[in-house]
Amino acid sequence: DSGVTQTPKHLITATGQRVTLRCSPRSGDLSVYWYQQSLDQGLQFLIQYYNGEERAKGNILERFSAQQFPDLHSELNLSSLELGDSALYFCASSTGTGLHNEKLFFGSGTQLSVL
Amino acid sequence: GENVEQHPSTLSVQEGDSAVIKCTYSDSASNYFPWYKQELGKRPQLIIDIRSNVGEKKDQRIAVTLNKTAKHFSLHITETQPEDSAVYFCAARAGFQKLVFGTGTRLLVSP
Questions:
Q1: Residues B5-46: pLDDT tens digits?
Q2: Cis peptide bond N-terminal to B8, omega within 30
Q3: Per the CB < 8 Å rule, is A90 touching B101?
Q4: For the segment A79-94, what is each residue's pLDDT rounded down to a tens digit?
Q5: Taking CB atoms and an 8 Å cutoff, what residues of chain B touch A56?
Q6: Residues from chain B contacting residue A105 (CB–CB below 8 Å)
Q7: d(CA B57, CA B51)
């Protein structure tokens, strides 16, 4: 167990709908990252938060948004869902110190299926 | 920004053989290079990492080497076992920058 908690584990919804994915980082970690992994694809970086503030942005669609709350948990909101949004969404956390050996730990992911 | 290339995309070996996966990075400021193993349907798990001031690191059957001059690093798995079958991702990071992942290598170890 990495200590990073993601809910729900599975999500099935229809095109055009909106969903929210939730992530609780490891105790003590201030930084949260979101990654998207489509079938047989790599890990596509979406966005990173550090202590409530956005730190880095990747190839995140305008239909997607995220935030990190004062208790450090994070939510990824996906709206106007399309079939191509079906993927495994991972959250990861780290201390956020930027030290050279800072380690990234992943949650178990949320499998999103858009029908 | 950083770009990480990983080869091969697929690697098939016989049990007991060695496996080598190679990655190159573009940002000379990168100083941290982890490797992750992802089994089917599971989360990526950190298996070994190396810092830029170290040329090689070993942990039982796995080892990682780093060549800063050439900007490439490799994962070596010796005496492979069927349970080593998974997708392996390399990654690189410079300081506070985000961790950039390679495209992954699917390793298949046949009994």
A1: 999 999 999 999 999 999 999 999 898 999 999 998 899 999
A2: yes
A3: no
A4: 999 999 999 999 999 9
A5: 97-98
A6: 46
A7: 9
